[in-house]
Hints:
The chain has helices at residues 10-13, 19-31, 45-54, 114-117, 126-142, 162-173, 193-201, 217-223, 232-246, 264-278, 303-315; strands at residues 60-65, 71-77, 83-90, 96-99, 103-105, 120-123, 149-152, 185-189, 207-211, 250-256, 285-291, 320-323. By secondary structure, the protein is an alpha/beta fold. Strands 1-2-3-4-7-8-9-10-11-12 form a ten-stranded mixed sheet, with helices on one face.
Amino acid sequence: MRLNMNLDQFDNLFKKEPSFRLKQAKKALFQNLIESWQEASVFPLNLRKELEDKCPINISAKDFISKDKDTIKSLITLKDGLKIETVLMRHKDGRNTVCVSSQAGCPLGCSFCATGKMGFKRNLDSWEIVEQIIHFSRLLKKKGGKVTSIVFMGMGEPFLNYDNVISAVKILNDKDGFNLGARHFSISTVGIIEGIKNLAKESMQINLAVSLHAPEDGLRSRIMQVNRKYPIKSVLNTVEEYIKETKRRVMIEYLMIRDVNDSDEMAEKLASLTKKTLSANNNLFFINLITYNPTGIFQPSGTERIKKFREILEKNGISVTQRFRFGEDIDAACGQLAGKQI
Ligand code: SAH
Ligand code: SF4
């Protein structure tokens, strides 16, 4: 059996080689998208053999394709046998977005999220995050396409694994390798304050998205336990600081759950709350309304309700977008990733 991808020794192994070898290896791995080091014909045989032994690049994945073929969910088996899910969304205009996981499971247990329900296994290391992108890049190469954006909206809370998430972005951003511009990355967080503060200091222009989902602490704590530690006011004040420092636009995510957080009153509250805290800096925020994907407990809001909710926000001068739903039939939509086999 071939070993699963393990690039822990990658940088180390090239320390003894002339510097151009590392460049060649990155080109082979990220641009030519080789699937075995034997294909790296620029390398002498003994180096290829050493790479095969110490840095296997075989990805063990099972792909599930949605009926409309726009979404592919892959169940990847990591080097220690743990399984994670990752999703490719193919847009009609040719863009390809990968929704990556940053943790196996999630320790935060939000009540509406399937990942939260499965509990927490461990943080992914940076190469395990990168592996998800390489997998889909290989697949897209065969169809003449490439990955054009990456969102940290798969399993896990990226800011509870901050260092590995940022290292993964750096690896993928590297000009000699995958070379994807920082603006094409987005990180979604429940509002881990330390993470937002650290991201503001990064030199890379990564996009930030914050999962708010409720305009008042009582309700937010009920559906997201993490609100007890990071309540709305402190999260939004940190976002305000972030906007002031970076001048970057932030996405506020809001799940539309029937009869829970989708009333006219909630829309008015959400409008005044965000305007009060976030509008001082030229309205550098917008609200993304997300259709709730059923995971057992709640029901999604109806189309008319979402329309009315949106109108109230817009009447208050707030920019609103709506998230298109991908891959529901293969349990690949937001919040449905739980590492189970269909
Ligand atoms: N842990 C991070 C990132 C992963 S979840 C976070 O929570 O932000 C990515 C997005 O999917 C979040 O906005 C999350 O609230 C949302 N989500 C979770 N469960 C969902 C569901 N059942 N339907 C739709 N979106 C969901
Ligand atoms: Fe974790 Fe995000 Fe799911 Fe909450 S919504 S349980 S933070 S992955």
